[in-house]
Amino acid sequence: MILRDYKKEDAPIIAGWIQSEDELYRWSADRFNKYPLSGDDINENYAPQIETGRFVPLTAEDDEGNVVGHFIIRYPKEDDDSSVRFGFVILDPSVRGKGYGKEMLRLGIKYVKERLHASRIDLGVFENNESAERCYESVGFSEYSRRECEMPIGTWKCIDMEMIIAGE
Length: 168
Hints:
By secondary structure, this protein is an alpha+beta fold. Helices cover about 30% and strands about 35% of the residues.
């Protein structure tokens, strides 16, 4: 697997992995609020954020060059480069449960260490997404807080997780 810069052509592939409104909200929280999601919706959301230089979308490809995963890295605070947040983490449904998520996250962690030099990575996962939570734990993330999130389809519990990477 390789991690590469996201391309606009990846968007329809990623959008196609989201098969229900429930999956949309588990993937994007309340950032899109539109189902079904199109590739144009993703590109329109990403474009202004990419311009800030503080939003890095990445795509994972398997050894045959197929797009199999995607996530973004962003700086949550404008004046703080020491902490980044992973978001919009998703895998092609046909490869879930096969270790691709762990591999993609490990490559993302390496990317942060080598290119962004942040000392902390955090992310949020909804309590109703146990497989994702287990995947995050397996690569070294641990829970630091819980909160309730008002979603258009109900109130969900969000688990905030972090990984401290300074000194590794």
